[in-house]
Amino acid sequence: MNDFSWILLFDAAIRLATPLLFAALAGMLTERAGIIDIGLEGKMLTGAFAAAAWAALSGSVWQGIGVAMCCTMMLSLLHGFACITHKGDQVVSGIAINMLALALTSLLANRIFSQGTMTPVLSDQQRLPAITLPTLIEQGESWPAQIYWQLISGHNALVYIGLVLVVILSLFFRYSPFAHQIIAAGENPKSLRRAGGSVDRVRYASIIAGGAICGLSGAFLSVGHGAGFVENMTVGKGFIALSALIFGKWRPLGVLMSCLLFGLLEALAIRLQGHYLFSEAGGLPIQLIEVLPYVLTLVVLAGFIGPSFSPKALGVRR
Q1: Burial class (CB in 10 A: 0-12, 13-18, 19+), 108
Q2: Model confidence pLDDT, tens digit, residues 89-106
Q3: Nearest-angstrom CA–CA distance, 100 and 87
Q4: What phi and psi values does residue 291 have, to the nearest 5 degrees?
Q5: pTM, whole model, 2 decimals?
Q6: Which of 124, 155, 182, 248 could form a Cys-Cys staple with 255, CB 3.0–4.6 A?
Q7: Neighbours of 2 (CB within 10 A)
């Protein structure tokens, strides 16, 4: 690790944090309205398949992203139909969505492309290109130049959209009257009904918006960071996003910080795989770093870093 570069490490952390950020923001919108969103994993997987499949068939990456958002919104509607309209168990519904997405994406990939449970490898024209920002600092060996050109510039559009979305949602929850209805639906639905609002309407709007954002998460995995879809490519990222949501205390800025932390830990785990400490000679398993996001979530839930209060009506079926 003599050539260890903190700038490159943080650059990788931003890329790895982006799908977690979209999924966690989607879960935040849904759960602030009082609906548990265990199905983030399944929606991410569906979005990843839909984006890669449509990009491979049509050649348009942005059409693929749009299709991914539509598909995840449909899954969210299914979740809302079970949990809001029919007052079903929200955890069971979310688990069912995860199982459905895992089976359906593998089946469709095999039937459509006949390449096992994967889509064809996407070309550069079928993936999101890296964006080079305007030349505010001349390229060079100085720290400001390296930070600008290696860390800030050179990401694809979804990375910057994710950061902008954090700002938009922060302003939305601070100033929008409809955001107050979302908070009321998650904290005290009875008060929202007494004020003449519709709890079901607010929850449906939140869950659909969350579904659209979650589609961006899956699309980033297959057409942004990756070059196609493979079976179960999310490998638990939806549950890590739930951990980031809890660690961020259901707040946009907190979610951003927790996703960056979890992305940094994942990038560090990848970078340290060849290090002496985590070799046979060193004897330490690399999983010690990979498990840290879950340990940190448990620490937060235990109250060691201040209380983390979930919406009071979260999961309440009434």
Answers
A1: middle
A2: 999 999 999 999 999 999
A3: 20
A4: -85, -10
A5: 0.91
A6: 248
A7: 3
